[in-house]
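In this section we walk through a basic example: taking a raw amino acid sequence and producing a predicted 3D structure, encoded as C-alpha cells. The instruction is simple. Fold the sequence below.
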Amino acid sequence: MFKRILIPLDGSELAERSLPVALQIAQAQASELIIMRVPLAEKMMTSYPAEYSLLWPEQSLQLSQKMSADYLQQMLAQHESTGIPMRAMVVNGDVAGGIVDTAAEEEADLIVMTTHGYSGLTRWVLGSITERVLREAHCPVLAIRDGQPLKHLLITLDGSYLAEAALAPGFSLAQALKSRVTLLQVVPEKGLLDWGQIEKLDAKKESEIHAEVIDNAYLHLEELVNQHAPRGLAVKVEVASGSPAATILDYIERHQADVAVMATHGRTGLRRWVYGSITEKVMRGATCSMLIVRPHFQE
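The resulting C-alpha cell sequence is shown next.
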C-alpha cells in the first residue's frame, strides 16, 4: 500500500528517528523513499581571520540550501547498503507547506515524521508544523514520538464508514512492522443512538439496550477483521464504554499501545469525530505515536 514514502528531515537526530521506521516499511513493501529538507534563512554569523561577518538573508538561504543538499546526500550514502530506492529533495518555502505540497506532487502514500525536531531556532512540535501537516496532507501521516519499536497498533473506530478508512493503512503498517493490532470501538455511555424516547425507559431496559449495542459492536468488529485483516496478522477486538477521547487515552496507557491509528473524520448518529475534537484530543494527550488518515470520500 505504501509505495512511495516521504520523510521530512531538519538535520537533527530527533527528526532522523523517523528513518528506521520508514526503512522497515519500505523493506517490507518494496517502497521508494524520498527524504526532503526545507532550508531556512536565518541570521548567521561566519568567522574570518580576526573578524566576524553577518550574512544577509539571501546569503544565508543560499548557504542553507547547500548545507541541506550536502546533508541529504550524506543520508543517502549512509543508507545505500540497504538497497532501498531513495532520493533526496531540497524544497524551498515554508516547512509545513513544503512537506504537504511535495507529498501531493510526488504522489506519496505516506509521510513519516517525528513530532519534535530542531533546526537552529526552529522547533517542530505537535501544534505547529506537524499538526499542520496532519491537518492538510492528502495521504496518511505517521507522527513518531520516540525511537521505540512500534509493536502494538490501536485502530480506533466509531461504527462509521469514514472511521473505517483507517483500517487499510493501519493493517498495512502493522503488517510491515510485524505488529499486533487492536480494534477499539468506544460506545458512549449515554445517548447511544438518536433515541429521544430512551429517557422514558426504566434503568433495566436502558441497560439491556446498552448491552445489545456493545454486543453488536463486537460482532461488527469481528466482521471487519474477517473482511480486511491480512492473513497471519494478530488482531484483537475490544469494545469500551465511556467518553471517546478519555477512553482511548486510558486504553493507550493501560495496554501500552505504541501507535494510535485514527481517521480525521467519522460520524456516529449526530456525533462527529473530527480533527479538532476527539482526534485532536487524542493526539494532544497520547504518549504514543499516531497514524492519522484523511478519508478521500464524502459521507
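Looking at the output, two observations stand out. The two ends are 23 Å apart (CA to CA). The chain has two domains: 4-144, 152-293. In the next section we compare this with other chains.
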